[in-house]
Amino acid sequence: MKKNVVNxxxxxxxxxxxxxxxxxxxxxxxxxxxxxxxxxxYISANSSEQPQVIKLERFRKALxxxxxxxxGKPGDFLLDTGGGITLLSDNFSKEIGCRFWGRTTGYNMxxxxxxxxxxxxxxxxxxxxxLTPVNVGKINxxxxxxxxxxxxxxxxxDAFDGKxxxxxxxxxxLVIETPQSLAKRTKDMKEFPLxxxxxxxxxxxxxxxxxxxxxxxxxxxxxxxxxxVSLISKDYAHAFGLNPDIKEQRLxxxxxxxxAIDSPVMVTDMIMDGNLGQPFMSKYIITIDLVNxxxxxxxxxxxx
Length: 304
What we know:
By secondary structure, the protein is α+β, with helices and mostly antiparallel strands. It has helices at about 1-35, 40-45, 90-95, 180-185, 280, and strands at about 50-55, 55-60, 65-70, 75-80, 85-90, 100-105, 115-120, 125, 130, 135-140, 155, 165-170, 175, 190, 195, 205-215, 215-220, 230-235, 250-255, 260-270, 275, 285-290, 295-300. It has 3 domains: about 1-45; about 50-165, Acid Proteases (Cathepsin D, subunit A, domain 1); about 180-300, Acid Proteases (Cathepsin D, subunit A, domain 1, Beta Barrel), CATH 2.40.70. Helices cover about 20% and strands about 40% of the residues. The strands form 3 sheets. Strands 2, 3, 4, 5, 6, 7, 8, 9, 10 and 11 form a 10-stranded mixed β-sheet that branches. A 7-stranded mixed β-sheet has the order 15-16-17-21-18-20-19. Strands 1-13-12-22-23-14 form a 6-stranded antiparallel β-sheet, with helices on one face.
């Protein structure tokens, strides 16, 4: 009996030692996990991330191309911030192993309807930068670019959904910003109202800048695919000091003390207020936050 009592006491002592050692190991693991995932270490790990720079290639006189890889196939796409949805030429689409199905319906700025199938969750690299997966459609450029090889597709803002980007045409680059670089870049830039439009059953993404006139607030599409002219709807011509009965005019309008529109303009029937193309966009550095729907414009590089 006495021997059994001694053995029981020894057993309890051994159990206590094991439990103590287990608890020490458990708390050690907790401390290590806390150190690994604490906010300080998280910020430190991510603060080394750098903005991603995409090089632009001049196409014709006023437009830009981006060299991309779609499902492993390389090509040159026209950069079109007003395109709404990323599109592939018919020949290019046949070589990416993608099944097109369903129907995407959209309208251009003049109200012309277009319909076509879509292919989903396509991975696109611009250089070595992975863009946002997109639902792509098809496009036929036809004879839109006489004398030049037509692009393999159209790269629109849907491929940058959920990102903050800067278009710096003077430097020939598009930059995907980090939170830190975005804050630094926009510190001294002028902010303007921004609306993000998602049409085509939510597949499209376009952006409109809010422009204040004496008659009220208008919303103009920012369109890097419009090379030589901007457009204003006849219904808003007077608000911009234009004659609604004259098609080709010159638009001069101050957005702020330092940012102005000075562009050839076509006054016509449209289903939107207007469109600011390359005559405006190419003069400025434009930063677009597609996460928080914010827009900044600068006319120099002092904020970089």
